[in-house]
Design brief:
The chain is α+β, with helices and mostly antiparallel strands. 34% of the residues lie in helices and 21% in strands. It contains 7 helices and 12 strands. A 6-stranded antiparallel sheet has the order 1-2-4-5-3-6. A 4-stranded antiparallel sheet has the order 8-9-7-12, with helices on one face. A hairpin with a 7-residue loop joins strand 8 (179-183) and strand 9. The radius of gyration is 25 Å and the shape is globular.
């Protein structure tokens, strides 16, 4: 450890004692932003010491901040500010970096690129509101290049062929354990359950004698991780964008028809028959 001290009691980060908090100026903020790197895909039990050990190979750091959610749980991503911008640039240019040899490559990008990607979602929400105010002007919703998500929240249940089950059965089984979304239609070979918290913890709570039983049948669900987990979230973001685009097209079509009663099948002029 390089002796980085706690920066703030409520902020999960450490600052190098040789780099005290500087005076707040726009020029300094810009310079520090260029020296800050965003990294995602880290294990949820990561500590500051482990992060420092991994990233110190790129250069001397001013601080490391572990990003946490509203429940103070680590989200699997960090911000790292380097003393020198050249070191930050060197890390961003790294194409392959793993926490362990068995894990997937970490997602690494500059702080500015991260917020640029994240703000795409915010812009989409503003477009939806603007669209409603403008009476249905079509706005195209796009999937962000980098989808932000919290790891360990998706449970996959396979080998469901021939099992009489439903989304309601799955919600009932996990009732009280924070189910937020179930992706499954009758006849599907697999189901995906999204939880507000840890999918693994929810799974352990519903096991009976270390077995997972759904609708009277035993199966072996797994918590998604790595590429499969990332693909789930990308697909989810794509389907959300398609839903809004389809809704926009329908609204635009209805508007082109002139609204209720004025388009095809609506009431028009009356003519007297001779």
């Amino acid at each position: 450890s390089s002796g980085i001290n706690a920066e703030w009691p409520l902020r999960p980060g450490r600052r190098n004692p040789d780099k005290p908090l500087p005076k707040n100026t726009d020029e300094l903020k810009l310079a520090n932003n260029l020296k800050t790197v965003y990294v995602k895909g880290l294990p949820l039990d990561l500590t500051i010491d482990k992060a420092e050990e991994l990233f110190s190979q790129f250069g001397k750091m001013s601080y490391v901040k572990l990003r946490k959610n509203a429940d103070s749980e680590f989200k699997g991503s960090v911000f790292i500010e380097f003393v020198e911008q050249a070191d930050a640039d060197k890390m961003v240019a790294t194409k392959e970096l793993k926490f362990t040899p068995e894990s997937d490559n970490l997602l690494i990008m500059s702080r500015n690129d991260y917020f640029k990607s994240k703000n795409q979602n915010v812009k989409q929400e503003k477009n939806v509101k603007r669209e409603a105010q403008m009476g249905g002007t079509e706005v195209k919703h796009e999937v962000p290049e980098h989808v932000e998500y919290e790891k360990g929240k998706i449970l996959k249940i396979s080998e469901l062929e021939g099992i009489e089950t439903s989304r309601e059965d799955m919600k009932t089984l996990f009732e009280g354990h924070g189910v937020s979304w179930v992706t499954f239609n009758k006849g599907d070979p697999e189901a995906y359950i999204r939880f507000e918290g840890s999918a693994q913890e929810a799974l352990e709570k519903v096991r009976v004698d270390e077995k997972f039983i759904l609708s009277g049948k035993e199966s072996s669900p797994v918590v998604l991780d790595g590429t499969e987990e990332e693909e789930y979230w990308k697909k989810s973001a794509y389907e959300k964008a398609e839903f809004f685009n389809k809704k926009n097209r329908k609204r635009k079509f209805d508007g082109a028809r002139g609204g209720r009663g004025r388009g095809r099948g609506g009431r028009g002029k009356r003519y007297r028959r001779d």
